[in-house]
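Action item from last week, closing it out:
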Amino acid sequence: MRAEPLELERVAPAPPAGGEPRARRLLVALAGPALIVGSVLLALRGFAFANLLTNQHPHILSFWLPRS
């Protein structure tokens, strides 16, 4: 006795819950990554916006690791 495969109906995807506008959903989705990028740029603003990274310090960790 062999089982017949089930036939499934194709259903259109449901509209987004709450009917929020697309722009608002996009802003909410991008808020987290934008906060991370902004925080990193704030912490490293001397390297990002000023000329503090030179070839005198070949290893970036020498700025944060303690000297022995």
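Closing note: The two ends are 78 Å apart (CA to CA).
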